[in-house]
């Protein structure tokens, strides 16, 4: 359950968008908080939704025979026919109010955050293509902005044809450089960094001219899978293994590298959540944790083999692996047009070892070679602005492609079909929990958000000063004499203030450097941190940072009993929020 801050004044300072006034539409949909959207007596007959985003949302079609393609790659977006959105579109059990669903698929491989609402990818601005009566959007983005493709090449694949430098963690190597770029984006809060990119995109969705009148619109944002097992121990076999596409100086899958990459993926997910919270529309936007669905199906899992990292169903993510053994009929290995059919199958473990050593799975002269090193070199050449040579022309024969890059080159570290199925399960559960739908077996509902406040009081007792902090109901002033009866929790009691010359009637800022821990469900490392020249802030994790402000109630209270003087309190600093 996320911590949702309702600092309207604060948010208005940070956002370039103006909150639109509520308007009416013709749909009537109920939600898990017991409310219904406003609307006329006319009830919609269909539930309209769209899937937006990057290649995790679109999938990456790769099959030589076109069997994985969703729409004949009509706009170069590589959409796949078993993407999680497609799987949801084939199941009506989650659709609110028993309506018929109307599905639209705008997600496109290669999309960055800014290409959702203003920039173009493959000549598309995705928000411009959604229907005007959209009820729900799925949107997944951030992986391309966060540099993960470059990390995969520099740290894992490192193909021939480019100097990569020393392996991780040597800071001189390309791997360390690309990881540093990702960290800068993920953990930054400035313009064109993750927190602001997410906030901007969420606000852009709800302020889009097509749908801003749809007051029942909901936005769901899935996160990303962590790629690697990182538990270490006796079953960890990957330290000396490698996914590299070269035969010398091959970087290994060290535990430290795996932890570093996983940590960045966790940071990406946390940053997206924080950006949602920081938007104007956090109450209508829901992050979906898909990582919990992958279980023991990551790379380097104990009990798996190297073969399992490339083929089979044990790992839910693609590696830099060929489609399989491709046997062509006819002359020239079957590549000459009109020469008949192809046979495509997974290799045996023995054929896999043969491929690793020779580049071929078999000794059959009809085998179509899928040279992943050549594919990777071609992809690097385009990324570096180098003209493609003749050795890349044959790539067009290996399935669908985007800008001459076949799906097998674009799909590494993307979900396989079983990965998309796992993501669809998590998405379905979250949707059902947020709409008034009886969940399918095993789904768990989300609690309705409830409001809270944090109040800091300054106390004087016998010419000594101290601080108190209380957490309690939103909009209600804590009575420090009877705080328990009113539903408050005392977080800090009698924290000493040693500075001289203070006045109860003019509370100072809490001493700079003071830190008080606070626990909130679903958040980590939450604390109050005193500022140097301000009232301080509530912080959680590496992103949430919300300032306290002067308590306008500006009153003082005295607690006395027959035997003891408990002192006089004065309201000082406060913050109101929604959990």
Automatic annotation (TrEMBL):
Source organism per UniProt: Ampelomyces quisqualis
Which named protein is this? SGNH hydrolase-type esterase domain-containing protein
Kindly indicate where the leader peptide sits in this chain.
1-20
Keywords from the named record: Hydrolase, Signal
**Which residue spans traverse the membrane?**
none
Keyword Hydrolase set for record: yes
* A single GO molecular function term of this UniProt record: hydrolase activity, acting on ester bonds
Q: Does the keyword Ubl conjugation apply?
A: no
Q: Name one GO biological process term.
A: lipid metabolic process
């Amino acid at each position: 359950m996320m911590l949702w801050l309702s600092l309207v004044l604060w948010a208005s300072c940070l956002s370039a968008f103006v909150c639109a006034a509520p308007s009416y539409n013709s749909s009537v949909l109920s939600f898990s908080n017991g409310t219904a959207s406003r609307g006329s007596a006319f009830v919609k007959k269909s539930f309209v939704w769209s899937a937006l985003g990057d290649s995790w949302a679109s999938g990456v079609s790769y099959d030589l025979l076109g069997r994985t393609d969703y729409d004949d790659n009509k706009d170069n977006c590589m959409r796949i026919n078993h993407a999680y959105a497609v799987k949801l579109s084939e199941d009506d059990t989650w659709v609110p109010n028993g309506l018929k669903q109307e599905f639209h698929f705008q997600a496109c491989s290669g999309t960055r955050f800014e290409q959702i609402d203003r920039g173009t990818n493959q000549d598309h601005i995705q928000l411009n293509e959604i229907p005007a009566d959209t009820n729900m959007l799925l949107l997944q983005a951030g992986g391309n902005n966060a540099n993960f493709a470059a990390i995969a090449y520099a740290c894992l694949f490192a193909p021939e044809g480019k100097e990569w430098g020393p392996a991780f963690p040597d800071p001189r190597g390309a791997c360390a450089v690309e990881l540093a770029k990702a960290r800068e984006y993920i953990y930054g809060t400035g313009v064109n960094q993750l927190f602001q990119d997410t906030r901007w995109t969420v606000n852009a969705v709800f302020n889009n001219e097509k749908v801003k009148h749809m007051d029942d619109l909901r936005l769901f944002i899935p996160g990303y899978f962590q790629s690697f097992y990182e538990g270490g121990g006796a079953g960890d076999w990957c330290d000396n293994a490698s996914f590299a596409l070269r035969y010398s100086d091959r970087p290994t899958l060290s535990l430290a590298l795996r932890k570093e990459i996983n940590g960045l993926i966790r940071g990406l997910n946390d940053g997206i959540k924080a950006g949602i919270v920081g938007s104007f529309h956090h109450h209508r936007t829901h992050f979906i944790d898909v990582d919990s669905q992958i279980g023991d199906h990551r790379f380097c899992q104990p009990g798996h083999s190297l073969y399992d990292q490339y083929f089979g169903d044990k790992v839910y993510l693609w590696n830099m692996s060929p489609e399989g053994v491709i046997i062509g009929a006819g002359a020239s290995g079957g590549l000459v047009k009109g020469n008949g059919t192809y046979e495509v199958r997974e290799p045996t473990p023995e054929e896999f070892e043969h491929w690793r050593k020779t580049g071929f799975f078999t000794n059959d002269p009809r085998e179509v070679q899928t040279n992943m090193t050549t594919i990777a070199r071609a992809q690097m050449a385009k990324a570096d602005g180098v003209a493609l040579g003749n050795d890349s022309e044959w790539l067009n024969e290996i399935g669908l492609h985007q800008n001459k890059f076949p799906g097998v080159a674009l799909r590494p570290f993307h979900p396989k079909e079983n990965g998309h199925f796992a993501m669809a399960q998590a998405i379905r559960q979250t949707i059902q929990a947020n709409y008034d739908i009886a969940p399918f077996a095993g789904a768990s509902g989300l609690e309705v958000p409830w409001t809270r406040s944090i109040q800091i009081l300054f106390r004087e007792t016998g010419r000594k000063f101290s601080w108190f902090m209380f957490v309690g109901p939103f909009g209600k002033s804590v009575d420090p004499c009877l705080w328990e009866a009113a539903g408050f929790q005392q977080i800090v009691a009698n924290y000493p203030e040693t500075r001289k010359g203070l006045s109860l009637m003019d509370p100072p800022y809490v001493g700079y450097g003071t830190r008080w821990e606070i626990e909130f469900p679903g958040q980590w490392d939450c604390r109050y941190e005193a500022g140097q020249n301000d009232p301080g802030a509530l912080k959680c994790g590496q992103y949430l940072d919300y300032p306290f402000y002067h308590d306008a109630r500006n009153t003082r209270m005295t607690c006395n009993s027959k035997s003891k003087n408990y002192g006089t309190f004065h309201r000082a600093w406060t913050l109101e929020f929604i959990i």
